[in-house]
Amino acid sequence: MNPFSSGTRLRDMIRAIRACKTAAEERAVVRKECAAIRSAISENDQDYRHRNIAKLMFIHMLGYPTHFGQMECLKLIAASGFPEKRIGYLGLMLLLDERQEVLMLVTNSLKQDLNHSNQYIVGLALCALGNICSAEMARDLAPEVERLLLTRDPNIKKKAALCSIRIIRKVPDLAENFLSPAASLLKEKHHGVLIAGVQLCTDLCKVSVDASNYLRKNCTEGLVRILRDISNSPYAPEYDIAGITDPFLHIRLLRLMRMLGQGDSDTSEYINDILAQVASKTESNKNAGNAILYECVETIMGIEATSGLRVLAINILGRFLSNRDNNIRYVALNMLMKAVAVDSQAVQRHRTTILECVKDSDASIRKRALELVFLLVNDTNAKPLTKELIDYLEVSDQDFKGDLTAKICLIVEKFSQEKKWYIDQMFKVLSLGGNFVKDDAWHALIVAISNAPDLQGYSVRSLYKAFQTSSEQVSLVRVTVWCIGEYGEMLVNNVGVLEVEEPMTVTESDAVDVLEACLTRYSSDIATRSMSLIALLKLSSRFPPTSERIKEIITVHKGSVALELQQRAIEFNSIIQRHQNIKSSLVERMPVLDESAYIGKRTSSSQANIVADKSSQPSSTATTLKFPNGVAKPPAAPLVDLLDLSADDTSVPSSTSNDFLHDLLGIGLTNSPSSGIAPSGGTDILMDLLSIGTPVQNDTASKVVSSNQGFAPTTKPVPTTIQVMDLLDGLPSNGSLPGSQTPVYPSITAFESSTLKIMFSFTKQPEKPHVNKIHATFVNLSSDAYTDFVFQAAVPKFVQLHLDPASSNQLPASGNGTITQTLTVTNSQHGQKALAMRVRMVYKVNNQEKSEQGQIDNFPPGL
Question: In what residue span(s) does the GAE domain sit (predicted)?
Fold first, then answer.
């Protein structure tokens, strides 16, 4: 027989394919076999039709196209015999899916087979329908499936229940038809039917609130009875796994109980006793028992359980943490993270065990345990937990130091009650993991030191000591360099010595040695070397005996290959040689850095998702910020990067009378610092290391229009002209600093109902006044989550509208999250006609589609 004829047996074709040594040989075999099958199909060969479909299924699993055999599956299904139908339905499930149009042709055959007298044929039809059922097929065949749920055969009941799950997922509107049959399945004795019935009830609860209420009312007692019976049942070989009777049914029942008890105190109270029984009697020495205990804990934490039952659940998780299986410990840590929000005190009892997990050899467990420890920190345990974490930082793996240092820095900043403790802990972190500390953490430390005059001497001495032993930690070196540059005289003269300090002697030459070492040791780190040059320039004024040595060190770098270092060295050398008269004022100590401004900037950058909410509030009602070191200050303007060494040409925002310098070498250049008049925007600091000058005040003060006055856009002050003198050649020049006048518009509440709120904030470029960027923020005010959320808008003909994709289509309930979307609106008749917009929001609540619409007429003038 020809090995590639339609009569070839399936096993022979598989042998031929497996014997191929290359992919090309395999493709050749498959191509010949497919050609033979096509010939058989065109000849309407009925004798080998089932064999050809079996071959096509194997070819399909190898990844080759088999669409030409789909109609053959339908012909086999229409046959009368069971063997043909079995191959036909198997091919149907494998070769087709619900998106195929040809599937509509099989609906009639399925309906006939669902009413067949042979239970095995009925089972085949139910399996096929449960795997590839589309919405149209579900509506057509739901009555037959519903009828089969009430048959006596447990095998048919089980298959019908699984098929019903597929139907209600495709068509949630049919859920009410299956409520009564699903409830009747819970009275069965056969475990297979029970598991399928419980799963059907679970899916009914997911798609319909009415179904949840019905099952809560009619099935809670039966579920408790089933769970009690299987928990107390004697040994049953048919269902026993590791000494536990049917753990799969246990878990399904617990999940359904969690859904029924969630948010319902009466149902929760009724199932509390059985949950306590399962939690206390189930053995934890086998994996099956641990699975039941975990599901029981999740159910207890998900319902309105009593406090004693929650403590029992958390104690079970504590035992899981001592298990040798990493998977069990990981899921326990995950569940404890959820439990912290419910009962933090009960979780605190297992703090020691959780800390041991931070030191585990498994990276996943370490990371999850560290996140849990961070959630456990409060004002009372912050110091001991920080000490434990810092002690572990010294011996932890290099791969874990980044996460560990980040969490320690957050804990120290958030829970420090006094500046000295905060500074001490940060110094320890910088000494042990300075290479892993993020820039914003050590920037915040510099701001804190600047705001603690009593601790500045202590800080610079502590850093000097730490540098001697941990000079390889980059962040530590940078903070040390900055502090020596600012407070070097305190280091040399032992100013502000605390009682806890040991006496030490540091000469001016020793301080310069540290900076010189940083310049030579960190040859690849431009930022650190740039900071060292700045610090040396400052010390040249404060330590006159070392001025010549500092000049020599700076001169060496005039030929540096790094342009940044070369430029700074040339400029600083010129300052030392030719501008002694201004050097002392140029390098004087920086004023106290505004801590509130820096914290405000960090907060705004880390919580960008609530910017729209904040911008909708008037600036006059801004609340006082709480800082980690117990210092409360009113909010101020955001802080630019204190140590930005590569942005000398960056434009500077307008400053206020209490603004600090935005660069390490910047100084205020107002006419009369004591006059109480704030300098104009862009002229209050040195704009470049090459230029100094004194601003010339305008005779007429620029007018600032508040956004609270008739929604008029706010404009910045008119920039003033400054006299600029080049430090290198001493030639004066006149120049003016460009000032941008970007209009600012107030945010509005565009739409608000009892269930939904929409807020608009606006931005516009001055050179394109007719183009507006609208940032929309959607907030769900109801207690139900919205899915498939879609925002639609319509505008007049003279307006063009472009909608960017939304950030999500899921809107959490009760304002626990937002969706953001950007709209670009182009008003072709700007200044003549005001904007107007109609909006429509479509979303689903519990798979029921809802919509809301409205008109927006309260856009600020000028858009």
Answer: 743-860
**Per-residue tokens: 103:** 């599937």
Paired sense of beta strands 799-803 and 756-763, if any: unpaired
Residues of the chain with CATH 2.60.40.1230: 748-856
Angle between helices 49-61 and 23-42 (to 10 degrees): 150
Give me the residue label for tokens 């059922």.
133
Whole-angstrom Cα distance, residue 127 to residue 129?
A: 6
Quick check: helix, strand or coil at residue 860? Answer: coil
Task: For residue range 633-673, list pLDDT tens digits in order.
Answer: 334 434 334 333 333 343 334 333 334 333 433 333 333 33
To 5 degrees, how large is the angle CA 515–CA 518–CA 519?
A: 90
Amino acid, single-letter form, for residue 772: N
Residue 232: per-residue pLDDT: 87
Q: What is the mean pLDDT of residues 552-579?
A: 88
Whether 41 contacts 72, CB under 8 Å: yes
Reading the block at residue 195, the tokens are: 């598991």
Contact 643, 667 (CB under 8 A): no
pLDDT of residue 605: 66
In the predicted model, what is the mean pLDDT of the chain?
81
Q: Helices 191-207 & 209-218, crossing angle to 10 degrees?
A: 140
Structure tokens at 328: 């069990």
Residue 797 has pLDDT above 90, yes or no: no
Q: Helix/strand/coil (H, E, C) string of 91-120?
A: HHHHHCCCCCHHHHHHHHHHHHHHCCCCHH
- Give the tokens for residue 100: 């195929």
Q: Are 230 and 249 in contact (CB under 8 A)?
A: yes
For 100-152, write each residue's pLDDT tens digit.
777 778 888 899 999 999 999 999 999 999 998 889 889 999 999 999 999 99
- DSSP secondary structure string, 544-581? GGGHHHHHHHHHHGGG-SSHHHHHHHHHHHHHHHH-HH
d(CA 125, CA 120): 9
What are 755-787's pLDDT values in tens digits? Answer: 999 999 999 887 888 888 999 999 999 988 999
User: What is the distance between the alpha carbons of residues 526 and 243, in angstroms, rounded to a whole number?
Assistant: 66
Query: Which DSSP string do the residues of 699-762 spell out, in sequence order?
Result: SSPPP---TTTTTPPP-PPPPPEEEEEETTT--EEEEE-----------EEEEE-SSEEEEEEE
Q: In terms of Cα–Cα distance, which of 173, 165, 183 is closest to 219?
A: 183
Give 859's DSSP letter: P
CA distance 736 to 180: 82
DSSP 841: E
Q: Which whole-number Å values give the CA distances from 466 to 432, 469, 848, in the listed order?
A: 10, 6, 64
Q: Which helix (H) or strand (E) holds 792?
A: strand 787-794
Say if residues 103 and 96 touch (Cβ distance below 8 Å).
Answer: yes
Q: Which amino acid is at 644?
A: D
